[in-house]
Amino acid sequence: MNDTQSAAPLVRFGTFEVNLHSRELRKHGMRIRLEEKPFQILELLLERAGHVVTRRALREKLWPDTVVSYEHGLNTAVNKLRDLLGDSSRSPRFVETLPRLGYRFIAPVVQPGNTWAAAKRMLLVLPFENLCGDCEQEYFVEGLTEEMISQLGQLDPKRLGVIARTSAVQYKATKKSIGEIAAELHVDCVLEGSVRCDGGRVRITGQLIEARDQTHLWSATYDRDFRDVLDVQTEVARQIGKALAPELLPD
To answer: What is the pTM assigned to this prediction?
Structure first.
């Protein structure tokens, strides 16, 4: 018996509930018919939620004696799973594709009776807005956002999940509200910010927003000399991570 099954037969994510013992998938309590291969893929993804499940691992587990039709079978099974979950490969809420590598389950997973899983919070770092008026600074802003995701993702992965960059980038320059974005990605908090430039100076502003009522939990501004780009990105991301830790992980 695998770790997920031994820990809790019920696993919940979004509006879905999976019973790993009876092998049933339900949405709002209503049972959804799911074929064996898509269910096995979902089971493996849930066991490794937040981590990559490689295509090779899926082949060895689900198609050990098949070589020729394996690729088609896997793609078909994943598409069927996404259809039933109402998911999309371009803007994933549940199953993220890592091209040529595999898949990752990115939604928060709750196992009743597992205290840390039930308390796990989800954070989205929106792409920071470039207010420098210079397209050449776009690489700095994108790098800052990526560094922010990396730093926050290291705080406490068991208690705080950070949405992957490939999912967050879909909301760059979006007109959607924080509430709409949070509902789509099932996150508790959203970090947004902007970058402004003035000669050799850069001002970075960040704001942490509670998704439930869209109120500000924290905000700060960082002024730096625009010299070593990598040093500025790393230093500011670390300081923001340190400042947000008490808000995101109060215990």
So the answer is: 0.55
